[in-house]
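User: I'm designing a mutation panel for ABC transporter ATP-binding protein and want to avoid disrupting the core. Could you give me a predicted structure to guide residue selection? Please restate the sequence first so the numbering is unambiguous.

Assistant: Good idea. Sequence first, for numbering, then the predicted structure tokens:
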Amino acid sequence: MLAIRDLCKTYANGVHALDHVSLDIPRGMFGLLGPNGAGKSSLMRTLATLQEADSGSATLEGADGTPIDVLRDKDAVRRQLGYLPQDFGVYPKVSAEDLLEHFAVLKGLTARAQRREVVDGLLKQVNLWDARKRKLGGFSGGMRQRFGIAQALLGNPRLVIVDEPTAGLDPEERNRFLNLLADIGEQVAVILSTHIVEDVTDLCPTMAIMNRGRVLLTGRPADAIAELREQVWRKQVSKEALPGYEASHTVLSTRLVGGQPVIHVFSGQRPEEGFERIDPDLEDVYFRQLRLQRQAA
Ligand SMILES: Nc1ncnc2c1ncn2[C@@H]1O[C@H](COP(=O)(O)OP(=O)(O)OP(=O)(O)O)[C@@H](O)[C@H]1O
């Protein structure tokens, strides 16, 4: 659906935000996972035709199967694209219905009856029908994000890009939002950029882990997790002993449980007494990839 090859971008301050990024993104949900500053937004904005890459290519399969050069044929891409940026501002005094209608006009839906039908359909799809007359300024974070998805879906895009949409949402709103994305992902390609590992675990059949402008791993989460099988160990340790474990073991992560550190260690065999072997998860994969990159630097 979308083929990205050797995409590079260096900002004027010398930061390599995209360092030879290559990815194949199929239909369905694709998770782009990485810490702050990994380069996710730079990649999203480049694909959304809002900023230029220095080199490389990105090719989107058009509706009739013809390839679209994302970096050059921007108008054609924009016709196929829905984008929910990281900072999605709304006009606080306008109702959801009026603003969506306004966006629909900008998208070229000039026939009034058809526009009404589309706007009403989208408000229902994102579960904002009952709130359609309310001013956007009074919306919760989750409602605002669902409105953002409605505007991104105007014009039936084949590719939908959502940049860190669940940051700041409470668990219920997050679930509701992710369920909505999953429904959309059944019809089109959705790139979900996030630093929240569970968003990808719960939702994405394919993914990539990115950091410092580079793709560290791409594929199916289940395959990446299977690679770590029987090699991840857990132990609760004292705060005092933690630095010693970090020096002598491959500690993937440390988490406080009831105020006491619990470490996950990567090892082919039991590191020492008291370690329990656990089923690895995507978080273990993620931290291992970041660690491998640090070691290689
Ligand atoms: N316009 C810019 N000028 C200079 N540096 C930039 C610019 N935009 C981003 N950067 C830098 O490029 C790197 C990648 O940033 P980017 O926003 O793409 O990452 P991200 O993965 O989306 O992170 P975040 O979750 O913090 O937005 C960071 O080091 C950032 O400081």
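For picking mutation sites, this is relevant: The pocket of adenosine-5'-triphosphate is lined by residues 11, 13, 15, 17, 34, 36-42, 164, 195 (CB under 6 Å). The chain has ten helices and 14 strands.
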